[in-house]
Amino acid sequence: MKLFSLFRKKTKTFPYKCSCCGKIYDTAPLCFGTDFPDYYLSIPPQEREQRIELQQSLCVVDKEQFFHRGRLTISVINNAENLIFDVWTSISKKNFETRVNLWEDPLRTDHEPYFGWLQTIVPAYGNTLNIKTIATEQSVGLIPEIRIIEEGHQLKVDQDNGITYERALEIVDKILQDQHQKN
């Protein structure tokens, strides 16, 4: 029905040119993430295989430190897509076990959110390690939604209020510049 198309968010998409290398994308890349929590890097490389159990969305270090991956979303005002970061947070052993037990349970969305500490540096937001978060379960097959609950942190402000498309592009530029410098 065409009537419902009136209510859809109408936005134009524009090509994005990387300010660092000049590569042109069909649209600005707005989804970023890391393969492991930052705590992983504190373990000497030669010890990681023995001390770390790492799966796509779960990580255990020394059978004492527990982490899970989730999605932190920042609304981009007047844009069809949001800025998304796949991040890691710490989680208690009890909540980690609960997550594992609920992994395939369709009713997991009824579970209370899990408290944790952010274990990912989110580019353009300064030091984001160990800021307070909650993780809310999503449908089976999806990682939890991560909400920042650390009062006064700019990441919480932006997650609560959204950012302009121009600000999102500034963040994208910073991320891509950092990636180019590493390569």
Structure report:
The protein has one domain. It is 22% helix and 25% strand. It has four helices and ten strands; from the N terminus they run E-E-E-H-E-E-E-E-H-E-E-E-H-H. Strands 3, 4, 5, 6, 7, 8, 9 and 10 form an eight-stranded mixed β-sheet that branches. Strands 1-2 form a two-stranded antiparallel ribbon. It is globular, with a radius of gyration of 18 Å.
TL;DR of this structure?
With 183 residues, this protein is α+β, with helices and mostly antiparallel strands.
The stretches of 5 or more residues where confidence is low (pLDDT under 50) are 1-10
Q: If you compute it from the alpha carbons, what radius of gyration comes out, rounded to the nearest whole angstrom?
A: 18 Å
Discrete helix count:
4
The SSE order reads EEEHEEEEHEEEHH
Mean pLDDT: 89
Q: Please report the total strand number as a whole number.
A: 10
Number of domains: 1
Let me know the largest β-sheet: 8 strands, mixed
Instruction: Kindly state the percentage of residues in helix.
Output: 10-25%
The fraction of residues in strands falls at 15-25%
Tell me the span between the first and last alpha carbons. Answer: 49 Å
Structural class: alpha+beta
3D shape? globular
Topology:
Blueprint (H helix, E strand, L loop, with lengths): L15 E2 L6 E2 L5 E3 L14 H4 E3 L3 E4 L3 E10 L8 E8 L2 H10 L11 E4 L14 E5 L8 E4 L5 H8 L3 H18 L1
Parallel strand pairs: 3-7, 6-10
Antiparallel strand pairs: 1-2, 4-5, 5-6, 6-7, 8-9, 9-10
Q: What distinguishing features does this structure have?
A:
183 residues, alpha+beta, 8-stranded mixed sheet
